[in-house]
Batch of 4 targets.
Target 1
Amino acid sequence: MKYCVNCGKEISEDSVYCPNCGAVQQEGMVAQTNTVVVTTATNMNCVAGLILSCLSIFFNLFGVIGIMGIIFSNKGIEECKQRNENGEVLGSIGKVIGICTTILFVLGLIFSVSILSWY
Ligand SMILES: [Zn+2]
């Protein structure tokens, strides 16, 4: 059995607060400080990759914007793994969109060339 550090009343082994006086128990305090709070930053390359890929849906200058989206997203995903940063999901989405717009651009290019060669 454990006793309250403040009032000395019997309390259960795992209680953080005393049910009698409400005082925070020492063990509970230790357990709380042992919990390491890790704040991670969002990787900017992942964000840039996603923005570029989204932009390439509407405006893909010579297919470059879509490819840049893939490059930035890839770089961001790698950095997320190395530095344990957030944004891997954003980078993955950016990469998928970038690949899609690049494929569409190439298909559009092939289509345009085949139309032109008809005449
Ligand atoms: Zn107490």
Target 2
Amino acid sequence: MSARTALRTSQPPVRRCVVCRDSAPKSELLRFVRRPDGEIAVSDQDHGRGAYVHADSACMSEAVTQSKPIAHALRRPLPVGLLDRLGERT
Ligand SMILES: [Zn+2]
């Protein structure tokens, strides 16, 4: 397992959905992040503790109706307004 092999077999970054615990390319996942200031947002840019959820499919609706997996991953309850906004997207 050389460094050269690792470069040649580069794959898109994969993250795990906190709802179904399946892995998927980052592009298929929505990233919740707890920013350093404590605010929770949906963003790919912000630094902080992150939690990924499948952007489509049942995972999103499950994440919206029962936010526990995300809240658990971020160690903080989700703000209600954030979930309302996500619900409107689907
Ligand atoms: Zn999922």
Target 3
Amino acid sequence: MSDNASGQTEAAAPAPRAGRTGTLYLVGLDGLSPAVIAELTALGDLPNLRRIAEQGCHGDLATLFPTESPIIWSTIATGRLPDGHGVDGFQHFTLFGRRISTKTFHRLKHLGLKRPLRLLERMGLFHRRLLDMRDLKAKRLWEIIGDGGGRVGVVNWWNSWPAVPINGFLVSSRLHYWRAMAFGQMTDASRVIWPPRLLKELGGLIIPPDHVTLEELQRFVNLPEEKLGKFIDAKFVHHQLRGELKFLISADRTYSQLMDGCLERFPDLTFAALYLRGPDIAQHCAFDYMPSATHSERSPEERSRFGQVVPQAYRQADEMLGRVMARMKPSDTLLTMSDHGFGWMEKRGKYGHARGNPPGVLYCIGPEFKAGARIENAGVCDIAPTVLRLCGLPAAQDMPGRCLEELLTPEFRAARPPLPRIPTYGPPRPTAARPMAENRQWRKASRTTCARWDILIDAGKGVTEEKGSGYFSVVGKVA
Ligand SMILES: [Zn+2]
């Protein structure tokens, strides 16, 4: 089973068949914190999370350390720990032609080798790029369920680029590419979405950062219109409010709209997943302006200007969750969760997420879940076994988590006893995706041009299922 490249092994161990009536939705909301949710629901906000809490199950979700999003979201999607899924951070490092781990890279930096590494990078002996789908060593839920005959859809999950053929749709995490490109990611236009025809059909739903309106910005920041213009003109700056706001608003709105558009075109899915990153970025930029941020020394005036950034990011995420919930039929089920919370880090003297910080949250609703149950002792490793159980599939022995049986109704458990675990689902099928080139020009282009989507869409019209149209070379020329 471990060698998926060989058809023989596949034939010897056929994939377990998926089976459920109704769609199982998985909505990932990065960084959603139990304390902030409690604060906002007490004010009557977040109606959709409140509804799940009343009619389904909710509680904290224990997480991993380090609390780095790509690692944890890969654990959620594979049921495996980082050693098993292969994502150990944000980047892929190669030194003298051999891969080194993120931990080794940080160790070398701490040993004072930052400058030698930079030199080696210039000499071409040290390389780094952002991790992507090809670095995953374990199958993710949509691959397992798709292999089991289920129809699946995925929007914006971590490391989902390049979009490879699946039994349904896949909108990769590099479709809204502006912020990603500021990190030097280069995207291959033919593989941002599967099936590629969706780029033509749904391209109009993509919102470039420069198209965020003043009205939208005003929901986040309390500033006069003339000052808001600076937020529209701003260049990307990592975790800085002015440099991030239009990117986080436009990216989440884009992916939420694309989820809607795809679900419209792909009815009767077994499994559909959506991931939104806005709340995490908003917290990195503006947690210390919140009224409850007692460790911060922000003035009342600053708090009145920017104190709504985080609450509004939560409200936006809740609204987008509501758009998925509005589609749910009585037989559909939804799990929504965050990978970690957010809070004061004593050692670092700032707000963030690290060891000992608030866990994430888990909210579940559907016919299999008890109503009004409180979730206890759940962790990020338990999501995949639980989802598989609800899709009629066994967990694997290499998944350290468990199915959250105590949340399921006695009727469901009696009708569908748990299946014995299989040894492993193995690695994903190898992809023929081309290696990703990275160069400084792309980085420059992403910093200087934003309103080029019209050109991209025109160029994207030439995208075929087989080949890219060179749509990014158009951006290069324009820049
Ligand atoms: Zn995160």
Target 4
Amino acid sequence: MYPNQQPQAYPPMQPNQMPQVQMYPPPPPAMGQPVVVGIQQPLVNNTNLNVCPYPCQAYCGTCQQNVTTIITNKTGTGTYQWCLLLLFFTGCCCIPFCVDNCKDKIHQCPRCNSQLGYFEYKLC
Ligand SMILES: [Zn+2]
């Protein structure tokens, strides 16, 4: 019927295009966020305070010097656990509240009283 039928034109082979990696521009400086200006407090690793139930050497970022912490006892979870345990076994639950060893310890700076660490008393 159509002797001059043109061969079907195939679309040219697409070159195997690599997916274009979109280059994101570096994020613009965050607006609105307060820019911390001034003396940056040195990062102090006071984590040892959290495992130390007695006064320790620590760096106070507020005073910017090494201090020996003072310990403040605080009735913590472990104290209440003791309380329940003793109540269960002995019927008396007031002992842990009198025993400082059964309490959480707050490490405070002796100069500025800021909290430098927290020792959480655990039952086990
Ligand atoms: Zn201090």
